Every structure is written in C-alpha cells, then in structure tokens.
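Weekly modeling sync, notes
Attendees: S.R. (lead), two postdocs, one rotation student

Agenda item 3: backlog of single-chain predictions. S.R. asked that every request posted to the team notebook include the full sequence so nobody has to chase files. The rotation student volunteered to paste the first one in as an example of the format we agreed on. Action items at the bottom.

Example entry:
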Amino acid sequence: MGRQGNLDQAAVDGMSAPKPAQRYPNEIRRYRLEASLTLEQLAERVNLSISQVSRIERGERQPTLADLRLFSKVLKKPISALVASAPVMVVGFVGAGGEGVLYAEGQGPHEVVERPSDASDDTVAVVVKGDSMTGTADDGWTLYYDEVRTPPLDDLLGLLCVVGLDDGRILVKRLQRGRRRGRFDLYSNNTKPLLDQEVEWAAKVTWIKPR
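Predicted structure, as returned to the notebook:
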C-alpha cells in the first residue's frame, strides 16, 4: 500500500502544471469607448461577431492583421496604437541574385514576422533568396520596408533597397544612377552590377532581421 502511495505521489509530482492562457493585450476597447461605439456597432463595422470582438478586447483572442486593419479604419487609429505587438506581413521573397516574387493580394502563405519598434502601418517584409548580398542581406534573412517610390528618387541612391524591375523581377540591391536617363545601376556584394536597368519602383530597407 505504501509503495502504491509513493507511485501515486510520484505521478502527481511529475505532472506539469497547466500553462496560463496566452493574452493579447490591446487598446481596442479604450478607443471604441472614445468613439462612442457599442460592442455591437464595432462588431458590425469590422465584420466580426460580437463575441469575437469581445474576446479580442479582453485579450483572449489574437486579432489577425486583416482584423487590425479594419479596427484601425473604423476607430481612426494607427495599428501601432491599437496593439504594439501587431505582426508584419511577409509579402513575398526577393532575389539577391535571381528573381523574386511579391504575392498577389489574397494569395501567398500569409506568414507574419515580428514588428520592429519603429514600424509604421505600411511596413511589410520580404525574405531574401540568394547569396549575392551575403554580409548585408544573407539568404533567408528578412527585410522590412514601407515607403515605396514610383519611380525611385535620388534620395535612395547608394542605399540598400528592394527594387521592382520592368521585367517583373524583384531584387535587393544598392541603387546608383545609370548612364542612360531614367535608368539605374544595381549593385550587389558578390556579383557584377546590373547596369542601366529600368526600375519601376524602389523602397529603402528600413530593418533587417537575420535568420
């Protein structure tokens, strides 16, 4: 009997305590009340059920990025004011040496990554594929950007940028003016530059997250 009692106690001691429920603190309720909206009114405007919005306000449910964009629009507050830890959407991958792809609206794997402290509501991320920028933007690293320039302006010259070419390629390069008007030379760390390229748009890399 004593041996059985010891076994039972050992089993109890070996049991792990239940983990506390994860919380997702936010300021949605505060700004809803400031806007004089009822829970029902907010739920209707963001296309969620009343119980879903209630759970989000209490921090029991994590809002998606799409949810946060709707809350931001309805409450007229930036996402960063609603929830400081809102993730950043991965919108595609960029080629450090070859081609890259930006996912079309509503497509792609919908991955998210951590939000830099100085990110804006427009900040998005891309993942590097290739090794021509090794030492600056290695294969598998995540690059963040927000302000897209169409076409690029001189203030981006010499900076590490995500660039979109007229042939559809999406690359990460350093920009310099090309020899022909309106064209750009694109520089890497480990490969020959691409000279006199037609660049449709470019965005300065604002933050880099190593793998």
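Discussion: group reviewed the output briefly. The chain has a mean pLDDT of 82.
Action items: rotation student to repeat for the remaining queue; S.R. to check formatting next week.
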